[in-house]
Design brief:
The chain is mainly β and 115 residues long. The chain has strands at residues 4-7, 10-12, 18-24, 34-39, 46-51, 57-59, 67-72, 77-82, 91-97, 109-113. The chain has a six-stranded mixed sheet with strand order 2-10-9-4-5-6, with no helix packed on it. It is globular.
Length: 115
């Protein structure tokens, strides 16, 4: 069974940092483009950052310069370092391949930015 398990979320004050982790159950994911998505209450899920198997990254403008996606293919892990967090970053964060595959969606990890 293919699984993607996210962790590392929490409650943080504006300007704070968090590091999200995504553990993949199979080495298959090491050759795929992976992404971090988020879904805020009442909004559609959006892709915020993605990374190719070789490490080329893309970040949406709203997080550029604050978030950094990375991966460790040997460990089947994908990370999202989030700095300078803002209240509008509050959402459930998910990892998945790009484009997202329905059966791969995990439970996500909640990130709440509030004072």
């Amino acid at each position: 069974q293919v699984q993607l398990v996210e962790s590392g979320g929490g409650l943080v004050q504006p300007g704070g940092s968090l590091r999200l982790s995504c553990a993949a159950s199979r080495s298959l994911f090491s050759i795929l483009r992976m992404g971090w998505y988020r879904q805020a209450p009442g909004k559609q899920r959006e892709l915020v950052a993605d990374i190719t198997a070789s490490g080329t990254t893309n970040h949406v403008d709203s997080v550029k310069g604050r978030f950094t996606i990375s991966r460790d293919n040997a460990k089947n892990m994908v990370y999202l370092q989030m700095n300078g967090l803002k209240p509008e970053d509050t959402a459930v964060y998910y990892c998945n391949v790009v484009p997202g595959v329905r059966s791969y969606w995990g439970r996500g990890t909640q990130v709440t930015v509030s004072s």
